[in-house]
Write a structure and sequence with these properties.
Length: 230
């Protein structure tokens, strides 16, 4: 594992700094666990440029009208603040429950945990078995000169109506979009800016899935890792 990088975090939000001490799952390019490291170390470009790679997930939550929930990341976030992205994106932690790989139960538990943390969605509204795991995405994206992402990202889709109680430390705003509305927003974003992983997934895969929400089984690629990184 890379050595801990000395970095003054005093300029950042206290709660977000605390979360930087969570332990992420460090993996190789085939998504095999090779260790664990702090969220801070996993997101420093100094380490990413040396190859440090961790496991993540992205949830795409659709309501009963087939509209996708997007969130705008809080200005308090250390990485990619103020950008719009998919419903929820984060990391399974290096704990027994979230390390379980059978049927992606660990990633599903992490998704359920973060949906509650970020958006106030009660676990019973997003039961583990209702998540549909489709595939994995490997990508790398700098946030600024210091921070970035380098992840193998598990793609989870869930279709359900939920009650939201947004955590302002995590999320600045939320909005549901139809497929046509989101395509139009990508074409004419105005002052909207999107996270790089959301754009990558949307441009390469999401819109096809969206048009087939009643038959997602045909798109399951449980052994696939889409390499969207040079």
């Amino acid at each position: 594992m890379p050595p801990t990088v000395a970095l003054n975090l005093d300029q950042y939000d206290d709660e977000q700094v605390r979360l930087m001490e969570e332990m992420c799952i460090v993996i190789d390019r085939n998504d095999r666990k090779i260790g664990a490291d702090t969220k801070k170390n996993c997101h420093l470009m100094e380490n990413i440029n040396k190859g440090l790679l961790h496991r993540a997930f992205s949830v795409f939550l659709f309501n009963s009208e087939n509209k996708l929930l997007l969130q705008q990341r809080s200005l308090d976030k250390i990485t990619f603040p103020d950008l719009w992205t998919n419903s929820c994106c984060s990391h399974p932690l290096n704990t027994a429950l979230e390390l379980e790989e059978t049927e992606q139960w660990g990633v599903r538990r992490a998704a359920q945990r973060k949906l509650q943390h970020e958006l106030g969605i009660k676990p019973e509204q997003v039961p583990l078995e209702k998540f549909v795991f489709l595939t994995r995405i490997h990508y790398l994206a700098p946030s600024d000169g210091t921070w970035g992402e380098h992840e193998v990202d598990y793609i989870l889709i869930i279709r359900t109506d939920v009650d939201l109680e947004v955590n302002p430390n995590e999320v600045k705003a939320v909005q549901y979009f139809s497929l046509d509305e989101l395509k139009a927003k990508f074409k004419n974003p105005g002052d909207w800016k999107f996270t790089p992983w959301f754009k990558l997934i949307s441009e390469n895969l999401l819109f096809t899935w969206w048009q087939n929400l009643d038959n997602l089984t045909q798109f399951k690629e449980v052994d696939m890792i889409h390499k969207l990184v040079s």
